[in-house]
Every structure is written in structure tokens, then in C-alpha cells.
Amino acid sequence: MAVAAIGLAAYASIYWCQLNDRPIRSDGVSYYEYLPAWIADGDPTFETLARDCCAGYDVEQPVGIHRWPETGRWLDVHPIGVAVLMLPFFLAAHALTWWSNLPPDGFSPYYQYIVGAAGLAYLVAGLAVLKRLLCRHFSDAIVLATLVVITFGTNLFHYGVFDSTFSHAFSFFLVTSLVLLTEHWWAQPTWRTSIALACVAGLIVLVRHTNGLFLLVVPLYGVSRWSELVSNVRRLAERWRIVAAMALIAAMCVLPQLLIYKWATGHWIVNAYPEGSFSLGSSHVVATLFSTERGLFFWSPLLLLAVVGLFVARQWARGLAAATVITLAVDTFLMAHWFMWDLGAGYGHRGYTDALGLFAIFIASFFDWSARRPWLARGVALVAALLVALSIVQMWQYWVGIMPNENTTWAQYRAAFLRVR
Amino acid sequence: MGTVPGGVSPRALIRGVVLALGAIVVAAAAIYLHDPPWVATLTTGFRPWAVDGRGERFRWTMGRGSFFVPSDATAMTLKVRSHKPFPPNPITVDVRVDDRPLTVITLPDPRHPDPDDWVVVQLPLPRGHTSRHFRRVDLRVRHWLDGYYLGVHLGEVVVERP
Hints:
A: mainly alpha; 64% helix; globular; B: Jelly Rolls; elongated
């Protein structure tokens, strides 16, 4: 509730003070514009949306969609998952727009601000899921401290309120839900849990295809030794009927996206980005993790506590260490070899925001470990508080333009360090 | 915890009051938002106002733009010009009022006679029953060249009222 209140105040302030021009902007346009095309225009081919150029932008070409050369049909650069999750917010905005007789074009004010709040809603929902997950294994104080530092000590809050129509707050909610449901599913594979897990798995792929690797958490859950992996495989084989049904449900969730690809391009699976793709010859692993431009640990040093947490985790959390390390290692490899390894403009490395629910488990583990060592606990609390404060200052610097939104150099970082005006 | 006379518990009473207040707030918001006064100055789908060499104010249109006129207006005068001497033809401006088609303005060949000449169109506004103070006017402008959207100039809109 506190994060929701702070988030709403921040969201309102950002647009009241014109720190950002509009909520549906940049990548947010391409994630969202399925909804105006499908519902407001009634034209899923994007032809109407393209002709009514340009999604409220002062530009000369359609935004976020491009004609596929072989077919001449429009293809959105981003998949449909975020639009699916935004649907309730869009429908509310659409109804209110009709009621007030505003332009029902998908980009007039109610759409902007109501759909723009969807990212905040999924951030809060993701934190609620994370709280429920952590409360089963850690004390209330550890859970509260973890929720505070993961929200304000990383770029999570930023992607809930400032760039709230980007995919990251949505993925944070889904990946965190995946972990909670996986825990329930291994304990008791009821049909309800199985269907929910399958739908969440499908949505994770629909929001960001490469996030499909987070589904490794399901088979790797509780595995910290080879024998446990063998045991999991055996249990999956014993549950083969339910696993097959879940795979079918997840496939049904993904099917609309495949049909869109097939219709627009003639292929079932495509790289929708016209600008580039993966390149094994160009690796940016170190830059992805440590650079001033966009390094994960440079901009969110608090996440180093999660790295220590991987080594000191006990019991339940220890059973998630292998799954977390493997998924994040593959994720890092993918991002470091993507043609735009820094994912363009953004605060911190937004590619990792999706996985902050996993990081949170190991931050909680580290807090739990240090809480049992009184000589260490106060120092950890002080360091964590300072890193949260640093993150908040840097987020503010990004919002007001003191810090560049991409390609930050060490000299620029030093010149701007802790400046608030 | 005791109960108030009549058997209604304090908690149920508070819940009822909160629900009633919530319903009043929602109803008030719905009434206000059905005919919000701030739409009088609301426009979407246009670039900022600019002034041409003759001192006339205009706005570039985007593909779809909207503005509001008072609901008692009997007519409005639109001034439109293509400005750019590029050949795609015809350039059309589809005008709708409250989602009902009003007219389609077709601009002449932008190279001839002069792309900076205004096409002035006076449009009677049909008297439709409305409980609102403002009616929405939507423009859809088709002006493309080689995959690039150009738009047209819209001059100041003159509204006639009784």
C-alpha cells in the first residue's frame, strides 16, 4: 500500500511537473499499440493506425511498426504480452473516453494516464506476490527490508512510474509469480495451480520472448545437487499428464503471437527488430555488468548483496540458487550479444529488472545471514540504506536530466555525482 | 463488542457509510466527467501554433486530430492548405462531428495554383440533441509522400453561435 501511494504520487508528479512528456512513449508505444489497432480502430492489420500517423507523436512515420519487406504487411517490433496485460486498463480508459466524448483514438488523455498506470499496478502486484513468497521463508523484518531495497535500491520503481509502459514492471510481476506458483506446484500440483503456472509461463514468453529462459526455474526448482535434478526429472515424468496439459495451455497462450508472425511475415518465428539481432562476434558481458554506460552492478550496486546471498543462502533459498545462476547467466549472455546490449535509453540495465524477484530472494538470504551476526547487521543496514539513497538520487538525476539517459561516461558520472539540481 | 440498537454492528455501519460515500463520489465524478468543461481548450493531434510569413496563425495536423466547439454553434469555418508543393493527390480532410460524418474536404493539386492559398470551407453544424456543452470535431488528414506523413495546415477555426 505504501509503495502504491508513493508510486501514485510520483506518477502524478512526473506529469504534473512535465518531467516526462507522456506515459505511452518510446518502447511503450509498440508494446501498447495492439490495443488501439484491435479495439479502437477495429483493424488488427495496423493499416488504419499507420494511416492515422503517428500515435500522437510529432513524427513523419508510423511508430513501433514496420512493413515486412516480403509481404508488405505491418509488424509490431514488440510482442503482444504487455498489451494483453494492459487490456483492463485500456478498456477502462476506452469506456471513460466514450463517456466524456473524448477522441477514442487510443492516444488521447485518458488512455495515456490510465494505461500509463498499468506499469505501477503490476509493480505493486509483483511486490505483493514477492512479499507472499518471502513471508513463507523469512521473518517480517527481513521481508520488509528486502521489499524496500529491491523497490528503491534498483531501477524497479523507475520502471513502475517513469517508463511505466515499458515491459519491465509487467515482467517483474510475471517472473515473481512464476517462482511463487512453482513452489506451490512442486508441493501440490492441483489443476488450479497448474493452469495458473501454464498461463504465467505463456505470458512471460508473450511479454518478452527471451524471458522464456526463466521457465528453467520450474524444472530446476529446489535443485542444488545433481541427485536433486535427477529426482526432479523423475517427478516430472511421473506427472507427465499434467505437464503435457500445462505445455498445451502455455502453447495456446503463445499461439496468437505465432499467428500474427505468420500472417505478417509468412514465418512462424521471426526477429521483429528491423535494426539488428544477436551477434556472437560482439560480446559486451563486462559492460553489461559493470560499465558506467549501463552496467547492472554499477547502477544498482545493492544487487551485489544478492551475489553474496547466493553463497550464504540456506534451505529453501539455497534450492533456488542454481536456477537463478543459470537463468541469469544465460540472460546475461543473450543481452551481452544483442546488437543493442544496453537496450538503448534507460535508467540502469533494464534487461535485469524483469529478474529482480529472483535477486530479492538472495538479498533476503543475505539479510537473514547477517541478522544472525549482530556485529555485521548494523554495518549491512547502514550500507544498504546508503545504497538505496544513492539509487534514489540517481533516479532523480535521470528524471530531471542531470544524468544522460544513455552512453554515460565516467567523467559525466563523476561530474553529476550526488547533484540534485 | 456491543451492537447498536437494531442489531447493526458498528463495523457493518462503517462499511455501509464508506460504501455510500464511495457511491456518491463515483456518481459525482461520472456526472462531472460526462460533460467536463476543460474540453473547451483540449486539442489532440496537432503540432503547436505557428505564424506564417503573412502573419496568419496555423497548426500542422497529424493523421488524426480533434478539437471541441460549443454545442450551440450553428456553423464553423475551417481553413486548410497543403503548404508543401508535393504531388500526392488528392489530399483529403475527413471532418466528423461527434463521430458522425460531416464532410470531406479535398485540397487542389498542391503545385497549382499556390500551396499557401487557404481552402476556406464553411460547414453548417447539424442540430443534434446533446446534453453536453461541447461537441467533438475530428479531422482525419491523408497526406503522404513516399512513406512519409506530411499533414496540412489548419488555420484558426471560426465558430458561429446564435
